[in-house]
Design brief:
Layout (H helix, E strand, L loop, with lengths): L2 E6 L4 H4 L7 E5 L2 E2 L3 H7 L4 E8 L2 E8 L8 E3 L37 H7 L2 E2 L6 H9 L5 E3 L5 H8 L9 H8 L4 E7 L6 H12 L5 E8 L17 H22 L4 E3 L1 H7 L21 H15 L7 E8 L3 H14 L3 E8 L16 H8 L7 E5 L16 H8 L2 E5 L3 H9 L4
Parallel strand pairs: 7-8, 8-9, 9-10, 10-11, 12-13, 12-14, 14-15
Antiparallel strand pairs: 1-2, 1-6, 2-3, 2-4, 4-5
Helix pairs in contact: 7-8, 8-9, 10-11, 10-14, 12-13
Length: 434
């Protein structure tokens, strides 16, 4: 295997060694280079013997540097290879439930272990083989695994992949190899909840202490499920039962290992109508990106920010647009802010998700179309606040391909997108510029 060098950084080790754009990198210290993991792992050494090719002729260079310093070569893509796509047809897959006509990137299903290590993506392990797993172990790559169930037959059914059950053995291989694993379970009512969830958590408990954490998140069901597996959503009773099943493992694991290991996403508590746990329950928020503890973190940070805040800017009114599920949390925060600052009016409006269907209640999946339809003509005050999660990470565009500026123009109001950070949130309410 080899990769083409598409650029060389100025004054870098590579430039000093005479490496040029267009050269082909074949190996580092005798190890062939196939992708970014090979490159990062083998180029971390303080002495790098590189084999390259130029114009059909092979040559070698030796580079001495500080350990972990970058060599300074650029490649055609971040992975130096194509992304590995998902080989499953999961019954709960959200991408399969999206309407046609959206931007192409939203339909790509990645299942790439390299992105798990580099960017925190979750992988199912189904497109990996024993050699891949051994490389992961040898390179000490702690990855995130979408487990869903440890029942082999059920896993095959849920993923529509006859190899999905057998791949569960990779969990033990990686745990025995000393890797630390974050895991995820998309929980589907009547399928992998109840006793099946209890079995899965028990099996993962047996791999402790190599399991760093497990997030249990409820399945999302849109209105675009024609021809797909009939799927229900959790009601209050089912969400409560799931919290109780998870609690059994939490208590056992906390007693033996000092960690709860498994955590229910906020959606379960909000759906069940149960109080959110306190901050210490979430330990170091290991599954924050999976929606575990987001609400508790925001509540505590807003209250901490309120203790430090001062406001003398006069009368001000802001509107907060939020998903229907977290509306009670946002409304309580608004009341807390207004109680401290009588000149501030905070109006919270829950946005019903007509685009994906009313069963989708989370804030991050609200579209520009729903915002405009449901807020147009309303008195939104001086500013509209939305969650940054509604927008593409690197561009101010919503899921329905409408830009933020168009929403501003339609609604005739200043719009600020805020992170799930209580200090930034309060500053936005008070009109403090970031």
């Amino acid at each position: 295997m080899a990769v083409k060098v598409t650029g060389v950084d100025k004054k870098s080790y590579a430039e000093r060694a005479g490496i040029c754009e267009g050269d082909t990198l074949i190996s580092i210290n005798g190890h062939s280079i196939a992708d970014v993991l090979d490159y990062m792992f083998y180029a971390a050494e303080s002495r790098c013997d590189l084999e390259l090719e130029r114009g059909g002729e092979r040559f070698r260079v030796r580079i001495r540097k500080s350990e972990y310093d970058d060599l300074g070569m650029q490649f055609a893509s971040f992975l130096m290879d194509e992304k590995r796509s998902c080989s499953n047809k999961c019954i709960f897959c959200f991408i399969d439930q999206m309407p046609p006509g959206m931007r192409e990137t939203l339909y790509f299903k990645d299942d790439d272990a390299r992105l798990s290590f580099l960017q925190g993506n979750y992988v199912t392990l189904t497109n990996l083989n024993d050699k891949d797993i051994q490389r992961i172990i040898d390179m000490r790559l702690n990855i995130n695994v979408s487990v869903h169930t440890t029942n082999p037959e059920l896993r095959c059914m849920m993923m529509h992949n006859r190899f999905a059950g057998d791949k569960l053995r990779y969990l033990k291989m990686m745990a025995d190899g000393g890797l630390m694993l974050n895991c995820q379970i998309v929980c589907c009512p009547g399928i992998n909840d109840g006793d099946e969830l209890r079995r899965t958590l028990t099996d993962l408990y047996e791999l402790m202490p190599q399991i760093t954490s497990v997030a249990i998140v409820p399945v999302g069901v849109t209105k675009f499920r024609e021809g797909l597996f009939p799927m229900k959503i959790f009601d209050a009773e089912g969400a409560g039962r799931t919290i109780d099943v998870i609690a059994e493992t939490q208590e056992k694991c906390l007693k033996k290992y000092g960690t709860r290991m498994a955590f229910a996403a906020d959606e379960f508590y909000l759906t069940a109508g149960r109080p959110l746990p306190e901050a210490d329950f979430y330990e170091d928020y290991p599954q924050y990106e999976n929606g575990v503890g987001l609400c508790r973190s925001l509540i505590d940070e807003v209250h901490a920010a309120l203790r430090l805040a001062d406001y003398d800017g006069g009368k001000r009114k802001v509107t907060i647009a939020t998903g229907t599920l977290v509306y009670p949390v946002q409304q309580q925060l608004a009341e807390d802010i207004m109680a401290q600052f009588p000149d501030i009016t905070v109006q919270v409006i829950p946005i019903v998700n007509h685009f994906f269907g009313e069963t989708i209640t989370v804030t991050g999946l609200i579209t520009a179309g729903d915002l405009m339809d449901q807020l147009k003509g309303k008195d939104l005050g001086d500013e509209l606040l939305i969650a940054r999660s509604m927008l593409k990470a690197d561009e101010p565009i919503f899921l329905d391909d409408i830009y933020l500026d168009e929403v501003k123009e339609t609604l005739g109001v200043k719009i600020t997108a805020t992170a799930n950070d209580g200090y930034e949130y309060l500053d936005a309410v008070l009109g403090v510029e970031w």
